[in-house]
Amino acid sequence: MPFLPLVLYNFLPYLNLRERYFGILLASLTSIISFGMLGFSATYAVFSFGVATALCMLLSAYFALLYATVNFKK
């Protein structure tokens, strides 16, 4: 489950909002890059898997950031 770190950063009570954003962005960026590199494959199945997974990770990161913003308690 590559999106698990994105969800876990939202439930750490000792992190402020900036630290949550940084953790979510860093975790999602590494996953998007690694799955996006599969998009350079000449094999269509590997190419489509990499591109589809990278796009899903991008959406997961967006919704994790949105959830972190809405659910943040000062």
UniProtKB/TrEMBL annotation:
Residues annotated as transmembrane: 21-40, 46-68
SUPFAM superfamilies listed in its UniProt record: Multidrug efflux transporter AcrB transmembrane domain
Keywords: Membrane, Transmembrane, Transmembrane helix
Superkingdom: Bacteria
Name recorded for this polypeptide: Uncharacterized protein
Source organism (scientific name): Campylobacter vicugnae
